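Our consortium's second objective concerns turning raw sequence data into structural hypotheses that experimental partners can test. To show how far this objective has progressed, the report includes one record in full. It was chosen at random from the queue rather than selected for favorable results. The single chain below, 390 residues long, was entered without modification.
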Amino acid sequence: MTAKRSPLALIFLTVFIDLVGFGIVIPVLPLYAERFGMSPLGIGVLLAIYSAMQALGAPWLGRLSDRVGRRPVLLLSLLGTAAGFLLMGLAKTLPLLFLGRIIDGITGGNISTAQAYIADVTPPEERSRGMGLIGAAFGLGFIFGPAIGGVMGHFSLAAPLLFAAGLSAANAVAVYFLLPESLTAERRGQARQRSPIAAIFRQPHGRTLALAIGAYFVTTMAFSLLTATYPLFTERRFGYGAAQNGYLFAAQGILSAVIQGGLLGWLVRRCGDKRLAMAGCALLAASMFGLPTSAAAVALFGWTAGLASGHGLVAAPLNSLASQSVDAASQGRVLGVMQSAASLARIVGPVLGGWLLSYDAAHPALSFGRTPYWTSGLVTLIALALVAIL
């Protein structure tokens, strides 16, 4: 067991540091972009281009990790992230700022490689627990990262970007010296003989994989719709500002990290991946329907906790189901496709949410927030149906 625990702890630390670096720039990047004379639309494009490039890069990185191993791809990704942040921090022109963001996005699909590493070193019955560590690192990184970025932004708007570059470079050094390779030479040889990525859907459980990807896309889109519109909703309905919303987002991150990092293994043993994913979809949908009915802060906090818990129960089991639907030589590519679907969902969700929230704002008779969140609830019920027929 010791041999297995040590790599998992190192992968957790790698993803946590990577997400801290990503989170550091969240509070300052829009303000930094304004210095280049960018309009709000241009800033939105700058933010969205990361997810667009990640959607393209994640399957490629996953497939490459199947061929050459997880460790080299993690190193490549972390060094690319460091280069992207450094270029943005030193940029004097708008094209260089976008180039840095594009490099960061293309090489930023290392979550799928980290998940493939976990798939390599865990048996199927323990896989959701291992995937949950990624979710926990994700949540904790988004708590500490923006806080550090906000503090460093007092020195200069470029300082958080340069610090994130240094953090990613240090992370790459730690991976080089501390993280062993998880993929055997035999499996790398099998992957080199594989046909294109589409071939994974022709494996015996290709239907299960397609349904898992569909459910993952839908739930990620619903949750990204929520996170993009939540501050506007709480401001209009409860008068909350940046500080109160920051506390609420931090609480969501902590709750999600506790569920995915602490409770998920026990829950999977009791319920199984499929039932747990269904429960998460049901809780997420119910909370989406309930959120716009909040008339008091207590109700808002309760529905928000339901959203964080539901989302925390969905991601790891769906990734585990996708991982178990293909052979050992295809883990990187299938988890890369999963992350690509999530990246696309993070583009669609905020755009859809903003459009639907604008509809509510233009119709004062409607309860503000009802249209986007009820739509999101209906969409999540579709995900529930997809999981149910796995």
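The partners drew two points from this record. Residues 1-178 form a domain with the Growth Hormone; Chain: A; fold (CATH 1.20.1250.20). The longest helix spans residues 206-238. Both points have been shared with the crystallography group to help prioritize constructs.
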